What does this fold into?
Amino acid sequence: MAVPGLVGVDFCKFVNYEDSDDFYLYEVGSYKCEPLYSYENFVKNRVILHIILKGKGILRINNRQYNVHAHQIFLIPDNTLAFYQADEEDPWEYIWFHIGGPKIPQILKEAGLSPDHPVYTPLELPPARKIEAIARDMLEHYNRQYYCIGNIYKICDYMIENSASRENRGVNNSLLYVKNVISYIRLKYAEPVKVDQIALSLGLNRSYLTRLFKEATGYSLQDYLLTYRMKMAVKLLSDEALSINQVANNVGYSDTFTFSKAFKRHFGKSPSDYRREIS
It folds into this structure.
């Protein structure tokens, strides 16, 4: 099966896959650029990865310019204005993904990608070819949510294990703390979790942990806990055997009113209205 989009036709699919707790996939696409084709991008609350298959071009971000070529990957961070342009004589072809999720900043950092270092270079060509093959495979199966999420895991793993940048290899104490916080919340979200409890369990100062978590994930601790509880509440609401009160108790709320208020603030509708819409 030929991969769409790599014959001069822009290919873009909006998928909005958010069931995973680690990665969200919003869009997939590919493009074979014309000479000097350029694009300026500013995207909120998600990042974009461009996997360069052939050719070359430039990326301008944070007042710096980067020359990018085949078998490299470049990052457009969230809430950042970026400009990129295909070369006049050897314009690039690329596959791109709009992604998000609480673990994305951490994983990209381990691979050596950040707003200050937005270009990824693999150690060798074979790993780059493997990443490109996985990306092509995702385009062919873009309508399969868990297949695509699984392939994002694979791409991130290859990037971390084969990065030419050694700055962020290994797991430092800060990233370990963040991982432990996420694990703690996923284990304890149904209980009356407090930020002070989380900090105490890790032996850290509350303000230090709060800042650390925000820098690594883009979420405050309270926002991540709320987001995770709401994600679990949505899953539970699909079970009509559970009352709204039971759903509230199962995601850490002692009373239905407080839960319903938080749910409506998060989704713009009450739990009851949401349940009616999906039934």
